[in-house]
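If you are new to this repository, start here. Below is one unmodified record pulled from the training split, so you can see the exact layout before writing a loader.
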Amino acid sequence: MRKADIITALFLIVSGLVMIIVIIPAQTYPGEEFGIPPATVPTAAMVLITLMAGIILIQRLLEKRKNEKEDTVSPINSSQWLHIACYAALLFLGLGAIKLFHFIPGGILILAVLMYITGQRKILNILLVSVPIPILIYAALWYGLRIPLP
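And here is the target side for that same chain:
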């Protein structure tokens, strides 16, 4: 587990620094002369994640090795990795559906598919959850916060 924590912490630190230095500045505009710039919240979140990953890295590097066998055992088995990969692929397909069909129909589609895959078989329950949620999110973001969605 120690080795997995070190690798994960290093990945989070590198990813966080790339986000802070490259991606967030490239994807946000400077903002108005007054108020908080749009990059403040994502930058603060990534700084926090990077600092916490740094703390994990330092803790794991400073702790003494208790058992060599403990480091060789993977905390996640292959079927769990497959499960994670399948759900990640579904989420990316959902993003494609939102881009192709726009936010509300794409959101309804991905929620319905995810509910079906996770075991919900009652059509009424799927409709009662997957239809109003994208509509409410769209209304809250567009009419409440004036954030345009695709």
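Two things worth knowing about this chain: The longest helix spans residues 2-27. DSSP finds seven helices and no strands in the chain.
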